[in-house]
Amino acid sequence: MLKKGIYQHYKGQLYQVFNVATHSETEEKLVVYQCLYGDYSLWVRPLTMFSETVEHEGKTVERFKLIQEVE
Fold first, then answer.
1. Considering the entire predicted model, what is its pTM?
2. Domain boundaries defined on the chain
3. CA dihedral (30, 19, 6, 41) positive or negative
4. Superfamily of domain 5-69, CATH level 4
5. Which of 8, 15, 14, 2 has its CA nearest to residue 48?
6. DUF1653 domain: from which residue to which, for each copy (predicted)?
7. Torsion of CA 38, 43, 49, 51, to 10 degrees
8. Which end of the chain lies in a sparser environment, N or C, as judged by fewer CB atoms within 10 Å?
């Protein structure tokens, strides 16, 4: 399961992951997280998308990388 903590997006911004929620209709797993910049807004993203790898500058990298686990 996805760990709670501070993640860095492959483009550099930081986010705090609070938990993984379940969509009430589809039962899809959604990551609940907050931007640690700007308006500090809350977001959700499918767990599969949050955890996937992407191509960036010719390399395969994690979309979000855990940099500090928070209990």
1. 0.92
2. 5-69
3. positive
4. DUF1653-like domain (2.30.30.320)
5. 2
6. 5-65
7. 70
8. C
